[in-house]
Amino acid sequence: MRKIGNFGDEALQSEQLQALTKLLSETKLYLNMKAMLQALLTDSERSAISQRLAILRMHYKGFNYSQIEETLKTTSNTITKAVMNYEKDTEHRGDFDNILKRFRFDPKTFKEPIKADMLDSTFLPSAGVGARAMIRQSTKEHNRKK
After folding, report:
1. What is the pTM of this model?
2. Does a structural domain hold residue 68?
3. Is residue 32 part of a domain?
4. 87: which residues sit within 8 A by CB, 6+ positions away?
Protein backbone atom coordinates (compact mmCIF):
# COMPACT_ATOMS: atom_id res chain seq x y z
CA MET A 1 0.00 0.00 0.00
CA ARG A 2 1.32 3.45 -0.92
CA LYS A 3 1.86 5.85 1.94
CA ILE A 4 0.32 9.30 1.69
CA GLY A 5 3.65 10.83 2.73
CA ASN A 6 5.14 9.48 -0.50
CA PHE A 7 2.83 11.53 -2.72
CA GLY A 8 5.78 13.19 -4.43
CA ASP A 9 4.21 15.47 -7.05
CA GLU A 10 4.43 18.71 -5.05
CA ALA A 11 2.59 20.81 -7.66
CA LEU A 12 -0.33 18.37 -7.72
CA GLN A 13 -0.27 18.07 -3.94
CA SER A 14 -0.39 21.87 -3.59
CA GLU A 15 -3.19 22.11 -6.15
CA GLN A 16 -5.26 19.46 -4.36
CA LEU A 17 -4.70 21.17 -0.99
CA GLN A 18 -6.02 24.38 -2.55
CA ALA A 19 -9.02 22.45 -3.93
CA LEU A 20 -9.70 20.92 -0.50
CA THR A 21 -9.36 24.33 1.17
CA LYS A 22 -11.86 25.81 -1.28
CA LEU A 23 -14.28 22.91 -0.75
CA LEU A 24 -14.08 23.32 3.02
CA SER A 25 -14.47 27.10 2.91
CA GLU A 26 -17.57 26.84 0.71
CA THR A 27 -19.24 24.26 2.97
CA LYS A 28 -21.27 26.30 5.43
CA LEU A 29 -23.45 23.72 7.16
CA TYR A 30 -22.18 21.40 9.88
CA LEU A 31 -23.85 18.27 8.46
CA ASN A 32 -22.44 18.94 5.00
CA MET A 33 -18.94 19.45 6.36
CA LYS A 34 -19.21 16.26 8.38
CA ALA A 35 -20.41 14.36 5.29
CA MET A 36 -17.48 15.65 3.25
CA LEU A 37 -14.90 14.76 5.90
CA GLN A 38 -16.46 11.30 6.35
CA ALA A 39 -16.12 10.75 2.59
CA LEU A 40 -12.56 12.06 2.28
CA LEU A 41 -10.86 10.74 5.42
CA THR A 42 -10.25 7.23 6.68
CA ASP A 43 -10.95 6.34 10.32
CA SER A 44 -7.25 6.56 11.15
CA GLU A 45 -6.91 9.95 9.42
CA ARG A 46 -9.91 11.34 11.35
CA SER A 47 -8.42 9.96 14.55
CA ALA A 48 -4.99 11.50 13.86
CA ILE A 49 -6.48 14.89 12.99
CA SER A 50 -8.71 14.82 16.08
CA GLN A 51 -5.72 14.00 18.26
CA ARG A 52 -3.59 16.78 16.73
CA LEU A 53 -6.39 19.31 17.17
CA ALA A 54 -6.85 18.32 20.81
CA ILE A 55 -3.07 18.56 21.38
CA LEU A 56 -2.86 22.01 19.78
CA ARG A 57 -5.92 23.31 21.63
CA MET A 58 -4.43 22.18 24.96
CA HIS A 59 -0.98 23.52 24.01
CA TYR A 60 -2.56 26.87 23.08
CA LYS A 61 -4.35 26.98 26.46
CA GLY A 62 -1.00 26.57 28.24
CA PHE A 63 -1.08 22.91 29.24
CA ASN A 64 2.35 21.32 29.57
CA TYR A 65 3.35 18.08 27.83
CA SER A 66 2.76 15.85 30.86
CA GLN A 67 -0.77 17.25 31.32
CA ILE A 68 -1.53 16.69 27.63
CA GLU A 69 -0.06 13.15 27.78
CA GLU A 70 -2.17 12.25 30.79
CA THR A 71 -5.40 13.78 29.49
CA LEU A 72 -5.19 12.46 25.93
CA LYS A 73 -3.37 9.20 26.71
CA THR A 74 -0.71 9.96 24.12
CA THR A 75 3.08 10.09 24.03
CA SER A 76 5.38 13.07 24.29
CA ASN A 77 6.68 12.17 20.82
CA THR A 78 3.19 12.60 19.33
CA ILE A 79 2.78 15.91 21.13
CA THR A 80 6.20 17.09 19.95
CA LYS A 81 5.39 16.24 16.31
CA ALA A 82 2.08 18.11 16.45
CA VAL A 83 3.60 21.17 18.14
CA MET A 84 6.65 21.24 15.84
CA ASN A 85 4.40 21.06 12.76
CA TYR A 86 2.34 23.94 14.16
CA GLU A 87 5.44 26.01 14.99
CA LYS A 88 7.15 25.52 11.63
CA ASP A 89 4.20 27.11 9.76
CA THR A 90 5.02 30.67 10.76
CA GLU A 91 3.09 32.08 7.79
CA HIS A 92 -0.29 30.83 9.06
CA ARG A 93 0.31 30.39 12.78
CA GLY A 94 -1.20 33.77 13.69
CA ASP A 95 -4.36 32.96 11.75
CA PHE A 96 -4.62 29.57 13.45
CA ASP A 97 -4.09 31.19 16.86
CA ASN A 98 -6.91 33.66 16.14
CA ILE A 99 -9.21 30.81 15.14
CA LEU A 100 -8.38 28.93 18.35
CA LYS A 101 -8.95 32.08 20.40
CA ARG A 102 -12.46 32.58 18.95
CA PHE A 103 -13.41 28.89 18.80
CA ARG A 104 -16.07 27.70 21.24
CA PHE A 105 -17.18 24.09 21.13
CA ASP A 106 -20.09 22.64 23.06
CA PRO A 107 -20.59 18.94 22.21
CA LYS A 108 -24.18 19.10 23.50
CA THR A 109 -25.18 21.31 20.57
CA PHE A 110 -24.42 18.48 18.16
CA LYS A 111 -26.64 15.95 19.92
CA GLU A 112 -29.86 17.75 19.03
CA PRO A 113 -32.18 16.10 16.49
CA ILE A 114 -31.54 17.14 12.90
CA LYS A 115 -33.97 19.78 11.69
CA ALA A 116 -34.99 19.97 8.04
CA ASP A 117 -33.48 23.45 7.65
CA MET A 118 -30.06 22.11 8.74
CA LEU A 119 -29.77 20.19 5.47
CA ASP A 120 -28.58 21.87 2.33
CA SER A 121 -29.98 20.00 -0.66
CA THR A 122 -26.96 20.95 -2.77
CA PHE A 123 -24.67 18.92 -0.52
CA LEU A 124 -26.33 15.98 1.20
CA PRO A 125 -24.24 13.31 2.98
CA SER A 126 -23.71 11.36 -0.25
CA ALA A 127 -21.95 14.37 -1.76
CA GLY A 128 -18.53 12.89 -1.00
CA VAL A 129 -18.84 11.26 -4.40
CA GLY A 130 -19.08 14.75 -5.93
CA ALA A 131 -16.01 15.90 -4.02
CA ARG A 132 -14.03 12.89 -5.22
CA ALA A 133 -15.20 13.51 -8.81
CA MET A 134 -14.09 17.14 -8.57
CA ILE A 135 -10.65 16.08 -7.30
CA ARG A 136 -10.33 13.47 -10.07
CA GLN A 137 -11.24 16.09 -12.69
CA SER A 138 -8.73 18.53 -11.23
CA THR A 139 -6.04 15.82 -11.32
CA LYS A 140 -6.82 15.01 -14.97
CA GLU A 141 -6.54 18.71 -15.87
CA HIS A 142 -3.23 18.95 -14.03
CA ASN A 143 -1.85 15.90 -15.85
CA ARG A 144 -2.92 17.32 -19.23
CA LYS A 145 -0.92 20.50 -18.51
CA LYS A 146 2.30 18.49 -18.08
Report:
1. 0.63
2. yes
3. no
4. 93
